[in-house]
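Problem: given the chain below (151 residues), write out its structure.
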Amino acid sequence: MPDEVAIRPDASFLATVEAKGGESVAGCYHCRKCTNGCPLAFAMDLMPNQVMRAVQLGLEEELLRSRAIWICASCQTCTTRCPNDIDIAHVMDTLRQLCRQSEVPPAEARVVKFHDAFLNSVRRFGRVYEVGMVTRYKLAANDPFSDMKLA
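Solution.
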């Protein structure tokens, strides 16, 4: 089939994710409990169990380009449900960090801007200063007035 794109797995990617995140992704046997409990699975392009499988297969570029790693709210539902005690939310966070370190543009740029505003607020004030954080996020996202009625 000439229209298919060849997938070239990177065998070292699994080792990189496990070393950076400290989670044994290789231990996932794809029971899908993480996906079945995920409140945001409906909005993801890859389900949490598919993300875990892609890490195992070394599909780095596919993962770093996916929306799933940015849509994950780190609510820990997947982690709680995992029978192998894999902190899947932490794996997602590790993938976000790897994406930021690579030259792959994040699939959800606004989420990255929100993360930056949140972390900058914590660094600056030792906690989240909501008004300042939202102001910085809205300015960075170039969207200062879209939800003004909510305020």
